[in-house]
Design goal:
12% helix; alpha+beta; binds zinc ion
Length: 82
């Protein structure tokens, strides 16, 4: 396992994870549900500027939120159509 790449990679389609939102995401919210995931695992939600705070609060309320990074810092899934 790549120690630096514990967050799930994201695809090229960087769309906000908020329900019904089709904005381009500018943030990646890293989170972990200790009941489902190993402690090192980081799930990724994408968020546009408008939904970043809302999604952070949603995850924080459940104790899942770890940190938020610019999408540029997220690991990209290798291009499958090359
Ligand atoms: Zn959004």
């Amino acid at each position: 396992m790549d120690v630096l790449g514990l967050a799930d990679p994201v695809g090229d389609d960087l769309v906000c994870s908020a329900k019904g939102c089709r904005e381009t995401a500018t943030w990646g919210l890293l989170w972990n549900n200790p009941k489902l995931h190993t402690p090192e695992r980081r799930k990724v939600w994408l968020a546009c500027d408008a939904h970043r705070e809302h999604l952070e609060q949603f995850l924080s309320a459940r104790g899942f939120w770890k940190r938020t990074v610019p999408v540029d810092e997220l690991e990209r899934r290798p291009e499958a159509t090359a």
